[in-house]
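Lab channel / #folding
Pinned by the channel admin:
"Please post every new chain as: sequence first, then the structure tokens as a reply. Keep commentary short and put observations after the output so the thread stays searchable."

First post following the new format, from NK:
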Amino acid sequence: MIDLEICTDNYETTYVASQFGFKRVELCANLNEGGTTPSIGIIQKCAQLKNIEVHAMIRLRPGNFVYTMDEVDIMARDIIASSIAGAKGVVFGCLSDNNELDLNATLYLAEIALNQKMEFTFHRAIDYTPDPITTLGHLFKAGFTRVLTSGGKPSAIEGKDLLSKMVEFSKLYPVQIMAGGGVNSSNSKELVSTGVHALHFTARKPCAKNNPEGMGLNYETDLEKIKTVIQSLL
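Reply from TO:
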């Protein structure tokens, strides 16, 4: 079956995914803001599960993907810390003010990850670039293992035409194409038909808790979504 990656901010979902045979977890904090760098403690805890890979998001703040030199330095330190904590890979993306690939920042962080012998994934920042295929070529040369993309559209199913083109590119320049963005049981099989190498999705739902006002919501693993996506691929 195609590789599955779950995006989560907690240990419970990571454990559940490991029991269902998921290849990887993209571990984040602040999922409601697109995901930021998780704590060292949760990386260490999830990395104790030896039957699922932990890939840590390296994004020090919400907002755009344009980073100062100081922010890039912080991200480099987070890559090293994630490696020490047991992560197999990291996930990051750096753009310029006009949404082109920030090649200098990208190459610098890629070198840090390579020195740690980690895999590294370019996240959905690629979907905001003017020419994702050209960007993909640069990422291949920089040594990226894979890209997470919705094919330049708000959802992967809307971007399936570009996903297919990216898959064709990957046949000549080996970089894994992972579809993410609105992936669910109703579209997973169609996405697989594009030839993508992996599917990426969240599986969580809010749960009723006696939460203090302004302190956010509690979430629990959406076991039914996990089961239905897997079933749709059989």
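NK: Residues 3-232 form a domain with the TIM Barrel fold (CATH 3.20.20.380).
TO: also worth noting, The beta strands are 3-8, 24-27, 53-57, 89-92, 119-122, 146-149, 176-180, 198-202, 204-207, 218-221.
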